[in-house]
Fold:
Amino acid sequence: MSEIGSQSATRHASTPDADDPKPAAGAWDLVTVPVRQGLEAVDILRRGAAPAVGPVVHDGTCDTLGFLVPPGTAAAWDMPGSACTRTSGRGLRLPELPELPEPAGDTPRPAGWLLPPGDTGPVTDPVVLREALGEAARLIEAADGCH
Structure:
C-alpha cells in the first residue's frame, strides 16, 4: 500500500465520525498493518458476537492489509506498528478494484480486496479495530515465543 502513503498521529482521542458507521460514499480513512497481524485481526473481528469488520484491501505484494475506517480516524490514530492515512476517498477508487487474473512469473500482483465492499459493513469501527489489532499482536508474540 505504499502507493497510498502513510500518516501517523501521535495523540489518542475518539474521532468525531467514529460513532457513524455509515460515512458518505468514498469518505474513509485507511489503517494499514503488516499482513500477519491484519489477518489475525480479521479473524478476531469476524469471530465476534456481531461481525465487526468492514472492507479490507491488500497490497500487491501481500505485505500489508488496509482496513477502511470512518473519516477523521487518522487525526487520532496512534497504534504502534500501524499507520492511518487520511484519504477522503482519494487514491483508491471504491468499490471497484478490478478483478484481475493472477500475473505470470515474478510480476507482482495488483492490490485487491480481502473483504470487498458489499460483503461487509461499510467501515470498521476504529475502537474495535484497535482492540483486535492489540489482541492479534499479543497472539503473534505468544506464538513466536513458543518454540
In short: Confidence is low (pLDDT under 50) at residues 1-24, 97-101. The chain has two helices and five strands. The first strand starts at residue 29 and ends at 34.
